[in-house]
Amino acid sequence: MNILDEIQRIFGEYGSEIGVAMAETGYMVGVSILVAVLFGLPLGVLIYLTRAGGLTPNRTLWNLGNFYVTVVRSFPFLLFVVFMIPITRAVFGTSFGTVAATFPLAFVAVAIYARFVEQILLELPSGLLQAAASMGASVPQTVTRFLLVDARSGLVYALTSATISFVSYSAVLGVVGGGGVGDFAMRYGYHKYDFILMYTVIALIIIAVLLLQSLGNRVSRALDRR
Fold it and tell me: For this UniProt entry, which segments traverse the membrane (predicted)?
């Protein structure tokens, strides 16, 4: 059996379906990245600020934020997707389809990135806060002009790592009708015993992950001014 002929056969027969599956995965991962930045970043900062000994200690806010992050990250992802089905159906009218399936992934994306953000901020040198205080910076100024600026390289690297997790999780969403390359590999590859097709799709996922990692590393190094 000629592998190249088989790959040519796969793209000739399933090229359009593979394209649709890649687009569905791209949508799920893209929305997850956007939600992680818009909500996970502020949540991580909030947990950092309100912890005991933080700039603005607040036990109630810290407990709420930390509880959300800990509980969501503790769920096995497939079980979390199933757990969220009633809520997803209430919001979208259905629990099937790429858009609806992205909903639980967005919750997980926020929790994952929030914890990354908190950890990165905790690793910053303590002198940074002292420098901000000596200049009379307010809490918002300390966050935007000192903490996030100094942590920007680590935050990009963490987002890259989180994105790779989102790619992995998106493959699970095929179980609930979310589509994507994982679902395509199972339906057209594994279930039809077309293992060359399945391995080809897996190779595409690996290539996409390697490209994402390379891009994230480049951006992270470019932002690292230390």
Answer: 27-49, 61-85, 91-114, 155-176, 196-216
CATH of the domain at 63: 1.10.3720.10
Model pTM? Answer: 0.89
The count of domains in the chain is 1
d(CA 121, CA 137): 17
DSSP string, 18-84: HHHHHHHHHHHHHHHHHHIIIIIHHHHHHHHHHSTTSSS--HHHHHHHHHHHHHHHHS-HHHHHHHT
| Residue 225 banded pLDDT, cuts 50, 70, 90 | low
Contact (CB, 8 A) for 36 and 159? yes
Q: Write the pLDDT tens digit of every residue in 91-109.
A: 888 777 888 888 999 999 9
Helix (H), strand (E) counts: the chain: 11, 0
